Amino acid sequence: MCNLMLHFGLMGIALQVYHAACNGELYSRPFIESFEETPMLLAVLTYMSYGILTIFGYLRDFMREWKIEKCHIAREREEQKDFVPLYQDFENFYTRNIYMRIRDSWNRPICSVPGATFDLVECSSNDYNWTFEYTGRVVKDVINLGSYNYLGFAENTGACATAAGEVTVKFGVGVASTRQEMGNLDRHEELEKLAASFLGVESAMVFGMGFATNSMNIPALVGKGCLILSDELNHASLVLGARLTGSTIRVFKHNNMQSLEKLLRDAIVHGQPRTHRPWKKILILVEGIYSMEGSIIRLPEVIALKKKYKAYLYLDEAHSIGALGLNGRGVVEYFGLDPKDVDVMMGTFTKSFSAAGGYIGGRKDLIDYLRTHSHSAIYATSMPLPVVEQIITSMKCIMGKDGTTIGLSRIQRLAENTVYFRRRLQEMGFIIYGNNDSPVIPMMLYMPAKLGAFGREMLKRNIGVVGVGFPATPIIESRARFCISAAHTKEMLDRALDVISEVGDLLQLKYSRHKVLPSLDRPFDETTYEENEE
């Protein structure tokens, strides 16, 4: 069989490993993703934590209403009390009563290049995280496990920085016009030709903002009478773009091909609601790497379904371009697929290229259509030239067009760092989500108090991490999200792993019931699990 779903029921916890065997039809290599179920006791305690926080939140709101506690909440003035509320007080309940308690784990300003390490401006709060003040101290050489600097191009020395500096001196920073007016420069067109060559498509178009690449272009592709099938964990930019289309939107379970096929089959059989006319278009929206789960889209199966039911495929490669594939060409190359099988290839330059903006690639007639119908193309200011030069230089480095093998060595180092870091965390006993080859590595924390405490304790030990909680994740699945980089040395990773283990013991975060048994001769770095008797 090509697709096997193996369930390991160990001590009441299921570990799901999606394994595509190498025999053939769709996958050319094993496809392994693990999502260990939340321990029941931990789930109960997490719900209890939120329950207690909610009770105290209502108590504090009562105290604020009666002026017992100082109120920092934005609200209408007394003379506007009979107006329709501008500030939805209840909707912000989570923000003011739960998020504010751990807000110091985010919003930390840095004052250096966000490379493998960075310098952090220390802040303190005297009003329980409602406002922050600079202490004047700078925390030096914090190991950076939070930035999307996958290939290590976020640097202030080297070819990229030199080229961007020279272009800034020659052309300035801003363009001050749209591409259709006075803002189309030769460097923009060179970048688009280079991007099309890199992606293996007929044509490509670049945009100044990654978020807007999705939110402003999807409405140009579909509209009323069309159907969008969206993965339940798609990024907010895809969700917003879909909502702006006026199309009917149906959501399928994350990376679940049975759920997607059921929606496709129902769409073909029943057509549009009430009229039962055929849908004008059916568009499938998926991502290459899902930034909160660390999972990789099961693209061979999605393409097979897309062909079977004559649908269109929109692939967001924001996190996978540059980070997957032998040559960094993303999830399509990772699976050995033909780029022509993906109708719309979207990605951003903000991660692996350490720049800004996004792109869309595909057939020439598609790109020509977007040049005249995309709001982002017509109304948005052109991409600044220093950013363009950063992308061109880093892309040429990845492709080997700079005459070196630096790009390929960085891609290989990222893959090695990813496998090493994931395996070590699993061996320590942490619950880790996602695909073995994904440089996005979520480590489950669950409880909101531990989310804040983990970030603080790590920073005390000079490790910078990103915590993620509700509403970006399910309410009981708060996590730390590590982003691995080719710029990380083994010494940095070992130092970070030692600190993570130390803090994990301190906060009791080693929840996994599976003991990992490393095997030196296992193919594709597969992992063996046995029951933990402790």
Please supply descriptive tags for the structure shown above:
19 strands, 16 helices, Aspartate Aminotransferase, domain 1, Aspartate Aminotransferase, domain 2, about 525 residues, about 20% strand, disordered N terminus, globular, seven-stranded mixed beta sheet, four-stranded antiparallel beta sheet, alpha/beta, disordered C terminus
How would you describe the overall organization of this protein?
- This protein is of the alpha/beta class and 534 residues long.
- It has two domains: 14-144 and 408-512, Aspartate Aminotransferase, domain 1, CATH 3.90.1150; 159-399, Aspartate Aminotransferase, domain 2 (3-Layer(aba) Sandwich), CATH 3.40.640.
- The chain contains 16 helices and 19 strands.
- It has a seven-stranded mixed sheet, sandwiched between helices. A four-stranded antiparallel sheet has the order 1-2-3-13, with no helix packed on it. A three-stranded mixed sheet has the order 4-5-15.
- β4 and β5 form a beta hairpin.
- α4 packs parallel to α13 (385-399), α13 (385-399) packs across α14 and α14 (406-428) packs parallel to α16 (490-507).
- The two termini are 36 Å apart.
